[in-house]
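Weekend entry, working from home. Most of the wet-lab plans are on hold until the incubator is repaired, so I used the time to fold the two sequences that have been sitting in the queue since the last round of cloning. Logging both here for the record. First:
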Amino acid sequence: MTRPGSMKQPLTVEMLCEHARLFAEAESDHNEPTLHGVTDGKAVGTYFEHKFQRYLHEHSSYDEGSSAKGMDFPELQVDMKVTSIRQPQSSCPFKSARQKIFGLGYSLLVFVYEKTDDAEALTGRLDIKHTVFVAAKRTADHQTTKGLLEILKRDGNSEDLIAFMRDRMLPVEEIEANTIAEELLHQPPELGYLTISNALQWRLQYSRAITVAGSIDGVERVR
C-alpha cells in the first residue's frame, strides 16, 4: 500500500485500514494532556474515535456514521471499536440471535490500546498494541459456529442443530430455531472469530481475533 496522498478520495476499506495503520503509529507516540489520569474506557474510546474521524476527514471523503446509523462507516459497512488490552471487549447492539451464527452483518475495525500516564509531564499516552480488521463473514461467535460446523460434518440433522442452539441458550424462539436449522443444512456458517456473550447488548470479546489476525482469511492484522 502507498501512503495516502493529500487529495481527498472516496474512502474504501483498503484506504480505511491504511489510514488506521498510520494513525495508530502516530497516536502511539503522542502525549495527550487531556488523557492524563483518565481511567474511564468510554472516555478514552470517545477521544480516540473523534480524533481518528477528524484525521480521516482531512484525507478522505466519506459519510460519517452515527448511533442512529448503527456504525461508524455506514457506506463501508464497518464499525470501529476501541478497547483496552487489559480486557479487549466492547458492547454491541443486540439485533438477533442469528448474529452469533451468521455474523453481525458488518465488519469491525478494532484498535487495542495500552494506556500509560506521565506523572511529571501530566500527559497520557495510548500505545496502540493491535489494529485488527475483522470482515463481516468472520464476526460470528467462535464456539457457536465451531459446534454447528462439527454437527454438520457428522451428518447432523435439524433436530441436532436445534438441540445445540438450546444447549448454547441462544435467545431464539422455536419457529426461528427451526428456520435457522434449515438454513444451516443448506448453507453451513463461516467460522467466526469473536466471542459473543448473551446479554441485552451483545458483549464482543476480541482476544481470539487478535491472536489469529494475519493468519486467517477475513481477519487482517492492520498493525
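Second, folded right after the first finished:
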Amino acid sequence: MVLFQFVMPDSAISVKNLTKKFKHSLVAVDDISFDVENGSVFAFLGPNGAGKTTTIKMLTTLLHPTSGTIRINGMDPVKQSHAVRQSFGIVFQDPSLDDELTAYENMFFHAGLYGVPRKESPGKIEDLMKFVELWDRKDSLVKTFSGGMKRRLEIARGLLHTPAILFLDEPTTGLDPQTRNYIWTYIKKLNEERGLTVFFTTHYMEEAERAAQRVAIIDHGKIVINDTPANIISSSGTASLEDAFIKLTGRAIREQEGTGMDQMRTMRQAWRGGRR
C-alpha cells in the first residue's frame, strides 16, 4: 500500500521573510527564513516565548502571517488552507485521543474527518496499526493504553490521510526514556522507509541532536542559527547541542507562551470535530 502520494517540490516547507506582529507592537516572529528539505527530519527549537509556537501556528494554517510567505508542499497556507491541511499530519503535545473509544474506532473516525474513502479505510488502518505494533490491541479502549502506546496510536492516526509532512509538537513529553526511544524508532523508520518529512519541536536536546538532519533555533522572534547538529556544536565551541542551545539563548528561565499553547490546544479540539 502506498501511504504518501503528494508530488513534492525540493522543499517540503519554505519560509521567506516571515513576520507576525500582534497588538501593542509585539513582534513574535521577526523576518525569519528557512527551508525544510523534502524527506528530511528537521528540529525547530527555542526557549519558551521565543516565537516557536507562533511559527508553528502559521505553518499549520491556524494563524495568518503579517508579512512574508510560506509554502507547505508547494502550497500557500493562507490561500489554500484546506489543501495544505490535507497534505500534513500533526501530533499534538497534549493527548488528543478519545479514551472512551477503542483504538480502531479512534482511527476510523479520524479517517472520516479527513475524507479517507470508506472502502480504503480498513486497509489503511490495519497497515498503520501494524506498523506501530498496535494491531493486536485494535479493540482495546484507549483508556487502557500506556502513554507510549497512545503516542504511537496518535502517530498512526496522523498518517491516515497519506500526508507528506508530519508535524510533531514535543511528541515525547512526559514519557520515560525507554518509551521515548521507542517512539523515535518509529519516527525514524517512517522517515527512512517511507520518505516522510518530519518537522518536530522538543525540549529534549539529545533527541534533536540524535534525530534531526538540520536544526533551527529561534529566540526573540529571530532564527539564531540553522545548521546540522554537528556544525552547531562545533561553531559554538561546546560539547553537545544542549550546551550550544544554552550558550546561544542564555540561561534565564522563560515564561511559557501560554496564549499560543492555548490556541494550539483549541486547534487540536477543532480537528477532533469538537469532541472534548
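Plan for Monday: verify the second prediction. The beta strands are 11-21, 27-37, 41-45, 67-72, 88-91, 165-169, 197-201, 214-219, 222-227.
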